[in-house]
Design brief:
Elements: E1 2-8, H1 30-41, E2 45-50, H2 52-62, H3 75-83, E3 87-89, E4 101-105, H4 117-122, E5 129-134, E6 145-151, E7 160-167, H5 170-182, E8 193-200, E9 203-208, E10 214-220, E11 225-231, E12 237-241, H6 259-263
Parallel strand pairs: 1-2, 1-5, 2-3, 5-7
Antiparallel strand pairs: 4-6, 6-7, 8-9, 9-10, 10-11, 11-12
Length: about 260
């Protein structure tokens, strides 16, 4: 199986929370490394894309904050040192049909300051299913996908629309990859669930339409255990659901709650 992962580094005010040293910069890329490891362990051929312009802007913004900005002199090296050589700069080698135009469709669920130019450049022609992983700690609460339009006048089959999932955590990206690989239950793209504006850390919480319960994906990387945490409408824990979406008996944990997220207390 093939998949394409587009990496976005933080820019502007989003760099305020980045690590202040070269060594600590590794924590910024930790979600990417988790996704890469999951792909490797499960036989997923993961092609990674980056936008050098995005890295240059990251360098300009972050270079004003760190004690020693010299390690940012080669912006591509920042990403390559963590991603490895199997990555592509979409500005250097854009995957585009030159005869077509590419448009980002802005809706109420697709409004953000995050630069998604790299997705527009590559999403339609990239091998395998595409998604975006933002390494920014700043997460717009209403933003979970990018809708793109590819168009050309008088060409059969166009315009074409494509929704590209956008993730702000390794867990979300891993859930999406796992659902592509195994076809198991997933909250993403599931009509029985609607995404909410609530989050557990950087993981989006979904509401089940039928009964108003709240679900979010969880993944213990050490145990390689995929499951979902389930809560009632008050935010009390109902238990864990398996990767098939079935509630597992005896998994209720009274110490787990999302009451403070749902009700602010």
């Amino acid at each position: 199986m093939e998949a394409s992962l587009f990496i976005m580094l933080p820019e502007g005010n989003a760099v305020l929370n980045i690590p202040q040293t070269k060594e600590a910069l590794g924590s910024l890329f930790a979600p990417l490394l988790r996704v890469k490891e999951y792909a490797r362990m499960n036989g997923i051929s993961l092609r990674i894309f980056f936008d050098q312009e995005n890295i240059i802007r990251f360098k300009a913004d972050a270079g004003q904050l760190v004690d020693d900005g010299t390690y940012l002199d080669k912006p591509v090296a920042i990403l390559r040192s963590f991603v490895g050589s199997h990555s592509s700069d979409v500005n250097k080698d854009p995957l585009l049909d030159a005869e077509c135009s590419y448009i980002r469709w802005d809706t109420i669920t697709c409004t953000t300051d995050v630069d998604v130019a790299l997705v527009v450049k590559s999403a339609f022609e990239s091998p395998g299913a595409p998604c975006v992983l933002s390494l920014s700690s700043v997460m717009p609460t209403d933003y979970y996908k990018v809708t793109l339009i590819k168009d050309r006048a008088y060409r059969e089959g166009l315009p074409e629309l494509k929704d590209i999932p956008l993730f702000f955590s390794a867990d979300g990206c891993i859930e999406w990859l796992s659902s592509l690989l195994t076809g198991h239950f997933s909250l993403i793209g599931n009509k029985a669930f609607v995404p909410t504006s609530y989050h557990w850390n950087n993981q989006r919480i979904f509401e089940k339409v039928a009964d108003g319960t709240y679900w979010y994906f969880d993944f213990y990387h050490r145990e390689n255990k995929i499951h979902y945490e389930v809560f009632n409408h008050e935010g009390d824990h109902l238990g864990e659901a398996s990767e098939d979406g079935l509630l597992v008996p005896g998994t209720v944990d009274n110490n787990k709650t999302i009451r403070h997220i749902l009700h602010g207390n």
